Amino acid sequence: MSAEEQAKQRSPLVDMAIGYFKKEGYKVNSENVALEGNSGVMRHFDLVVQKGRLEQGVWIRDWNRTIGVNVIINLDTASEDVELGAPIMIGEKFSDHAKSYSNRRKISLLTKQKIGSFR
Length: 119
Hints:
By secondary structure, the chain is an alpha/beta fold.
């Protein structure tokens, strides 16, 4: 699929995220990537971004509900399995438990509102 075809199939939130990362000095390495982890399980990421030498996996959840800690734990596990750095989650809002876990594990949580304000 060409880059043009991919862009047509992307959600508006993915476009916002790509714009946000580029403005923040990240290089967007790939979209909709599946990587085989050390466990042998295929791990899927919406984006893989890079700043300096640090490559980070990004999950984008365009849900109209709060993202819970279980989703954050799954992202953390997937990133660790494929040896990507501190993961990033983008969504509408996050539960208190998700925020707490993310703070302990150095996972970045970005809201649609935050990345949308960078236009």
